[in-house]
Amino acid sequence: MTSPFEALLPSTERALLHRVAVAQSEGRSPSLVGAVARDGRMVWSGARSCVDGHAPDADTQYRIGSLTKVFTAVLVMRLRDEGLLDLNDPLEKHLSGTGVGEVTIAQLLGHSAGLAAEAPAPWWERTPGTVRPELADVLGGDAFRHPAGRRFHYSNPGYTLLGSLVEALRGVSWEEALRGEILEPLGLTRTSVQPVAPHAGGWAVHPWADVMLPEPSEDLGLMAPAGQLWSTAEDLCRFGVFLAQGDDRVLAAASVEEMRTPAVAPGAGDWEGGYGLGVQLLRWDSRTLVGHTGSLPGFVACLWVSVEDGVAAVALANATSGPLMATVAGDLVRIVAEAEPRFPEPWRPLPEAEVDQELLELTGPWYWGTHAFGLRLGPDRAVTLDPLSGFGRRATFRALPEGGWVGLNGYYLGETLRAVRRSDGSVSHLDLGSFVFTREPYERGDAVPGGVDEAGWRGL
């Protein structure tokens, strides 16, 4: 049955088209296309163009620049999941002779390897890849700008190394691996290394006059894994759905979630943004967006996904500069999320098999010292621990096969929670990474480290 909520409301569609129209006009772009996916499929697309009757659509290719890096990162994560590498491996273990082999694969993915932001001159985005036939030509004689692992420093050559790593371990070209492992399984038939009609041409717009100049479109050679791809709004919507949900044919949901986790602390003054393993992270209007921006001469692009809202948005334009695509795509997400908020799943009781008396007896209030927490039972025997005052360390815990639980987020990520029982089988207390939670605050006789004053509670 088709849900009545699959299509967007006319007022929402008008707001989306208005945002695209403003971006194309104020950004002075020859054309601009936007698209939105919700709950697994594209539900809207719209475009504006400087040529009447020739607006692009969601099937028109644009160059997407550094959005390519997300695809390269997925290829690397697939190698990890297959056991062919560990993210903490030094690059030298799998790709020798680079001169920077001490950096780890995780550092390259998260841009914390300390490598230079760009390849040596001439400007790699406007020159053919044949200018840089070897990795040494991409890295130059002095590849490092910072100590490895210490800070975030965006590096295009770092993703060239990751593309070469994929080729070394797969025994095929980066393009072949990309096509067979990501594009074909996800049905991204309009994403390609070279442009395939219909596609937009790249333009530079004069900053002080309403005139244009065509931009060259170069094959980037070894630098391709950092920014080569062409794609469409429809294909990128489909890829955005993958970044939210995962797809076992390409990468499991848990591995995609790992990519969306911050890999390194943001720099000073940039606390609203960060970087995971191949994806940018942004706080935008109180929601978290994941995805990537992209630019090459003649083109700018952005894909943002709000996992919590179930909304992905794409913005593509064929101008070297002008439209602020991260803002446009962020606004498209916001318009849909606020105008048509996601319906929560209906409440349902837990399956009978997941409930037993011992688990139910653990629910309710617990005290860490005098701090009150509530323990709640969830699906699959998971539990959550919430501060009852509204302040404190909240965490969700997954049940372990051998008993107890492991923390999934926040301060207690990876820490073990277990119920400690007395000799008669009754529960004495909860142990969470050595912290003791008791049923009463500092009750005499409880297993409180340091003991409880014998005189008990008193007034002034």
What does this structure look like?
The radius of gyration is 26 Å and the shape is globular. The protein has an 8-stranded antiparallel β-sheet. Strands 2-1-11-10-9-8-7 form a 7-stranded antiparallel β-sheet, with helices on both faces. By secondary structure, the protein is α+β, with helices and mostly antiparallel strands. The chain has helices spanning 10-26, 68-81, 105-109, 135-139, 156-170, 174-186, 224-227, 233-245, 253-259, 325-339, 357-362; strands at residues 31-38, 41-49, 62-63, 203-205, 212-214, 230-231, 273-275, 280-284, 287-296, 299-306, 311-317, 364-368, 371-377, 383-387, 395-399, 405-407, 416-421, 427-432, 435-437. Helix 1 (10-26) packs antiparallel against helix 10 (325-339), helix 2 (68-81) packs across helix 5 (156-170) and helix 2 packs across helix 6.
A few lines on this structure:
By secondary structure, the chain is an alpha+beta fold. The protein is built from 11 helices and 19 strands.
Question: Keywords for this structure?
Answer:
single chain, 460 residues, alpha+beta, 8-stranded antiparallel beta sheet
Tell me the strand percentage band: 15-25%
Task: Give the number of DSSP strands.
Answer: 19
Element order: H for helix, E for strand:
HEEEHHHHHEEHEHHEEEEEHHEEEEEEEE
Structural class: alpha+beta
Work out the radius of gyration.
26 Å
Please estimate the helix content: 10-25%
H/I helix tally:
11
Shape: globular
Give the N-to-C terminal Cα separation.
68 Å
Query: Biggest sheet, open or closed, and with what strands and sense?
Result: 8 strands, antiparallel
